[in-house]
Amino acid sequence: QNNSAQVILRDGQLEIRLLVDREKWIKSLQNAQGWLTGQTNAFISPEMTGAEVTEATLKVLVNNTKVIVNQKILLLRLHQAAQKSVDAGHSLTQYRLSSPHPFSNPESLSVTFPASLGDVYVSVVRPQYQQMNAGETHEFTF
Predict the structure, then answer these.
(1) For 88, which of 1, 55, 73, 100 is 20 to 30 Å away at the CA?
(2) How many C-beta atoms lie closer than 10 Å to residue 30's C-beta?
(3) What are the phi and psi torsion angles at 110 (to 5°)?
């Protein structure tokens, strides 16, 4: 199962919903050679406790996920603690990050995830809002 992210760019708010194969990610962070050569952002020792591993992975995620909206770097915060989910037999962990931004009509977006995650399939969503009266049809344009 590949890692995936949904980036939701609303007026004044950005949210990232990231699904990660956590076991695979931790294995990449336990590779001392990868850490020494700069291929990973941290090193997780096999002797670390579960709580220490969780703390280290969250730190890597928050500190090494970079988002720029309209050339402004956003400071991300962990919006929700990790939640495990099972998708078609694969165990994935969901992380939610968010940040406010000052733009009512964002024009550009740049996203970087920690290299230790490996490949991430990304979809970007920019919601359109419209109140519709009962029985009314509204055509949305893209």
Answers:
(1) 55
(2) 16
(3) -130, 130
Backbone angles phi, psi at 69, to 5 degrees: -120, 125
Q: What percent of the chain has pLDDT over 70?
A: 92
Positive or negative, the CA dihedral 112, 117, 119, 122 is negative
How high is the mean pLDDT of the chain? 88
Contact 29, 56 (CB under 8 A): yes
| pLDDT, tens digit (0-9, with 9 covering 90-100), for 84-136 | 665 555 678 999 999 999 998 888 999 999 999 999 999 999 988 888 889 99
Q: Is residue 11 part of a domain?
A: yes
Give the alpha-carbon dihedral of 33, 35, 118, 72, to 10 degrees: -160
Distance CA 71, CA 114 (A): 20
Helix (H, G, I), strand (E, B) or coil at 29: helix
Does residue 136 fall inside a structural domain?
A: no
Asked if the structure places residue 132 within a domain, the reply is: no
- Distance between CA atoms of residues 80 and 82, nearest Å: 6
Q: Domain count of the chain?
A: 1
